[in-house]
């Protein structure tokens, strides 16, 4: 099997390389491979005879996208269109990743979204990812379109300087280094999601890619929590006595709105009997061990 892995050095791409046999893979990374360059994509995909293209490349700077929406659209929509066009032309399967941030418009939502729910993004980033989804779904049939949420993995996100777990641990260590007497961090408690370990996600997607069950999928860890509850569980696993203070999103002055509730249900995976995702709580110790914290 010949597989193009776009973004192979990123957070999710790194874990795909642990799961998929290396002799199947061709690693493609920015800036050498740029999905916004249609000519380069067509040339490569035409000559390599790939069976699957896995696209983990994305513009995920949520707040910057509010001021520079065209940057987000260039990658999350136009770049995806380039890939979809080339894959359709060569009859190649495409796996593309989207986000829980395509939801959020329903302010009263308190139950997980399934693949049948209508998206309603509340920020420019979510709109750009939804535009990319529409391209994939309208262009051809041999696709795996995967929405996921709250990713954390060994490599971290280069664009975001790591991930949420790394951010709160870094914050705590900073206070230790300057010998703050009452160590504490503030975390929002009114945004609900499902933190998802990218190694688990990669294993689940690889299982799915070996089928012909094309279509839209929600793939996250099981369960839900607020960012505050997530942080609390991380520090519990670290046996840390740092104080976690819950605050409201309104206390932060951020350019982009965030969904208050964007929990996804793996409904299609379960319908097909393919769901192997663990609870988000189970994955935290594995991540902390992988990173050498415990």
TrEMBL record:
For this protein, what is any one GO molecular function term? dTDP-4-dehydrorhamnose reductase activity
* The protein's role, per its UniProt record: Catalyzes the reduction of dTDP-6-deoxy-L-lyxo-4-hexulose to yield dTDP-L-rhamnose.
Query: Which residue ranges does the record assign to the RmlD-like substrate binding domain?
Result: 1-290
Phylogenetic lineage: Bacteria, Candidatus Kueneniibacteriota
Gene Ontology cellular component annotations, sorted alphabetically: cytosol
Per the record, the pathway is: Carbohydrate biosynthesis; dTDP-L-rhamnose biosynthesis
SUPFAM superfamilies in alphabetical order: NAD(P)-binding Rossmann-fold domains
Q: What is the protein named?
A: dTDP-4-dehydrorhamnose reductase
Q: Which GO terms describe its biological process?
A: dTDP-rhamnose biosynthetic process
Q: Which family does the record assign? A: Belongs to the dTDP-4-dehydrorhamnose reductase family.
